[in-house]
Amino acid sequence: MSSTVWIIIAAAVATYFTRIGGYLVLSRFDRIHPRVEAGLNAVPAAVLTTLVAPAVMQGGPAEWAAIIVAGVVALRGGLMSMFLAGAAVLVIARHFMT
Amino acid sequence: MPTYGRLKGISVSAQAITASPTRSEFLDGVRVSVPVFVASAPFAMLFGALAVDNGFSVFEAVLMSAMVFGGASQLVGIELFGHHAAGWLIVLSIFAVNFRHVLYSAAVGRYLAPWTKPQQGVAYFLLTDPQYALTETRALRHQPSFAWYMGLALPMYALWVVNTGIGAWFGTLIPDMTALGIDFLLPIYFLGLVMDFRQRPLWLPIVAISAVASVVAYRTVGSPWHVTIGGLAGVALAVIMPPRFSGVGVAEAKA
After folding, report:
1. Which residues from B are below 8 Å from A1, CB to CB?
2. Hey, which residues 4-33 in chain A have their CB within 8 Å of chain B?
3. B71-89 pLDDT per residue, tens
4. Do B2 and A32 touch (CB under 8 A)?
5. Could you give the 3-state DSSP secondary structure of residue B19?
6. Cβ neighbour number for residue B20 with a 10 Å cutoff
7. Mean pLDDT of B61-73
8. Is the reported ipTM for this assembly greater than 0.95?
9. For chain A, what are the domain ranges?
10. pLDDT tens track of chain A, all 98 residues?
11. Is pLDDT above 90 for B100?
12. DSSP one-letter code for B100
């Protein structure tokens, strides 16, 4: 096998370890301390925010308009409608602003 | 104090009441997966095109998508490969980009605990960002079933692999990425997922501190560590705040 294939296999093993690692560590305990539970409950909002904030900071008026519209739509509508609204604003704003 | 497998009881009673068939659970998952694979398709094609451009064969590009199944880490890996970085450095960088999944598997283990061990083994392999977030969203209402989880994961996985192959075959098929807004679609989608959790305790302070920490880390330490640093900042806030603010252990305190 080529060295590229070995790199891919090693990367796959390392990635699987990250995907099961948190469970393997926590499953050694029978009970979860309330503060640990509070931390786990915070994971989705905390981690997913880091995938949004730097991208928004790097963007310009078109990206900001799209993210604001998507955020407002998300307050009333579902995930699909906010996504489509944001994408539409983004494409239109980029068309006219650049 | 809650135990790790405490959802077992809920799962059994929910099944007894609704008797929801596996097939409809699976289709429910498929329905939720549609916006995800629409948003991620351009990235799979982009990865395929870039991989071939950086010296991968079409087979190697498809193999990486099938085995790693993590978009951002694959793009980082292929970039380093193109710069002839050492193999161990490429693997370490992919590990660093994917390190956030440790938090996901710790959090999602509560919902996967009732499943068989082989089911859990497969489920952890498929635990991507949207898979994790949508499983948490599902768990706000009821215990996610294995059929639902696979209905969500399998279309995403299959299309990720197939679209990588298409991108690799056609090379630079995608003409002007920025005009189409493709590069900013995933941040919009992830914002939608963040908004889904706005009823949780401390949501706004957690989002605020994670946003600030990730932007600061992005500018100082650099990518990909801003994800782990920003994520840990939000989690740390929830751990440090007294439990009465974070909404856990309240029942135990009264009893």
Report:
1. none
2. 4-12, 14-27, 29-33
3. 888 987 887 787 777 888 7
4. yes
5. coil
6. 15
7. 93
8. no
9. 1-30, 43-98
10. 789 999 999 999 999 999 999 999 888 887 778 888 888 888 888 988 988 999 999 999 999 999 999 999 999 988 778 988 998 999 899 888 76
11. no
12. G
- Contact present, B187 and A52 (Cβ < 8 Å): yes
Chain A CB within 8 Å of residue B181 CB: yes
Tokens of B180: 């189409």
**B192: nearest CB among A50, A70, A95:** A70
- The span from the CA of B219 to the CA of B114, in Å, is 42
Tell me the pLDDT band of B176, cut-offs 50, 70 and 90: low
Cis peptide before B35 (omega within 30 of 0): no
CA distances from B41 to A92, B26, B233, B255 (A): 21, 21, 31, 51
Are A84 and B189 in contact, with CB atoms under 8 Å apart? Answer: no
* Residue B12 confidence (pLDDT): 43
* Residue B14 confidence (pLDDT): 45
Which tokens in the block code for residue B246?
A: 């974070």
Q: Write out chain A residues lying below 8 Å of B69, CB-based.
A: 15
Distance between CA B213 and CA B227 in Å, rounded? 9
Rounded CA separation B104/B181 (Å): 28
Query: Could you tell me the pTM of the whole model?
Result: 0.70
Q: Specify whether the CB–CB gap between B144 and B22 falls below 8 A.
A: no
Q: Which residues contact B181 (CB under 8 A, 6 or more apart)?
A: A66, A87, A90, A91, A94
Closest C-alpha among B247, B249, B239 to residue A34 = B249
CB contact under 8 A, A26 and B102: no
Phi, psi (deg, nearest 5) at residue A17: -60, -40
Of the ranges B30-44, B89-103, B240-254, the best mean pLDDT one: B30-44
Nearest C-alpha in A relative to B231: A47
Which of B98, B110, B187 is facing A18, going by the closest CB pair?
B98
Residues of B in contact with A92 (CB under 8 A): none
Distances (CA, A) of B242 to A36, A38, A96, B2, B237: 12, 10, 49, 17, 10
3-state helix, strand, coil in chain B (%, to 5): 75, 0, 25
